[in-house]
Amino acid sequence: MSSDPTCVFCKIVAGTIPCFKLYEDEHSLAFMDINPGNEGHALAIPKAHHPDLHAMPPALLGAVAQTAQRVAAAVQKALSPDGLNLVQANGKGAEQSVFHFHLHVLPRRIGDELKLNWGHRPDDMARI
Question: Is 79 exposed, middle or buried (0-12, 13-18, 19+ CB in 10 A)?
């Protein structure tokens, strides 16, 4: 399994940095985000170090998505949010802050004013 000794998520996988673990299997780990956008904000990551979506093997991407789905179901049961976003920031231009692939499982409440949505602006159909 690949690892980066400077990566905070690799350190969490290795157990050298603690986390509030929610779920773990052979390929993935889910834990609470310590900088939550909303109550119940969690992360699902591969245990192996892959810096972004482009580096993720398809089978591992599926395993992390399954973990995110499992966590989302638990969040739904525990908190009954009005909605939920799965967010994956890929690269600096998308505000990726930790360069170890991760999916945010982000519970939403109507009116929470968390800025993720860009609004609805119809574009030119020919350009689309």
Answer: middle
